[in-house]
Amino acid sequence: MSSLTGTLDKSLPVPVGTQLFGLIQFGIALGELVAGFRLPSVRDLASHLGIAPMTVSTVYADLRKIGLIEARPGSGTFVASLVKEDRGRASAMRKVQKKVDALFAEAESMGLAPADIAALVSARVARGRAVQERPLSLVMVGNFIETTTVYAERVTAYLGLSDTITVTTFSALQEGAQFPQPADICLTHANRRGEVEAFAPQGVPVVGLSYIPSEETRARLASLDPEAHVCVVSVFAEFMALMKPGVLRFAPHVAEIDVRMIDDPALEQVLNWADVVIYASGLETTLLPRLPEGRDVFEYRHVPDPHSIRTTLLPVLERLRAGLPHQEEAL
């Protein structure tokens, strides 16, 4: 948490509350703040950042509204689960355990040994494996159709040969576009899962994935000339505070970095000053035509975190292939 809040920059033309909201959102999206992580109290965080407690309280309230954090009475405030169906898992397991105990007791009363029940369970598991390759239809929701398509291609490497994945955007859904069908499961950014749940058909689980900088982005940043003047262009105000630290994470040797919003009136002047321009995904058509000739330019691109795919998405896919009910339905 301190690594994220340490990037709060009061000199930026973005309210500190907006920055803090974006920092926590982005921290969840990138897997920096994992499900179950305990956030500082309003008073402690306000004191640490040197801002008004009301600002922190408002940010926390806004994050709770979209389902990214949750308050646990007597315990504090925590990052919420990124997979809606994970909630209640422990309770469901306890209920199943009781049924298993009752099954073994009934089997013993009928003269069956535990090994006999184990053999039946093994046979049932084997039948489940036989249907694991049932093709699934996935929907991925992102900010821009081009980048979301690239993200979907990354996820495809982890899917079955017969699985399909369709892409759409937040704006398309907000403007009334029909949710793609068929849909067995929906994927989106971890920090926007709550928004997508409002559009997904009932019963379709929504999984929030974390993202990391792509291999190409990391390599390009590491190879920057230490003497280069670097301009970083952002599209979302709430993520502006993270852009410079994101560059410095892989290019700590670069001293001259200026971060600007795409609609900043002074952007043209900064672009003329810069030797290297790094832009956020989605700015290709609005920024590139404005660049002076001779500028080294590249996208700060993210990709789905493989660890997030393996630990968050794949277990849900296995349950769907096996025909098992969602956790919430099993309660």
From TrEMBL:
Pfam families: GntR. It comes from the Bacteria. InterPro entries: Tscrpt_reg_HTH_GntR, WH-like_DNA-bd_sf, WH_DNA-bd_sf. Gene3D superfamilies: Winged helix-like DNA-binding domain superfamily/Winged helix DNA-binding domain (1.10.10.10). The keyword ATP-binding does not apply. Residues 14-82 form the HTH gntR-type domain. Keywords: DNA-binding, Transcription, Transcription regulation. This is GntR family transcriptional regulator. The lineage of its organism: Bacteria, Pseudomonadati, Pseudomonadota, Alphaproteobacteria, Rhodospirillales.
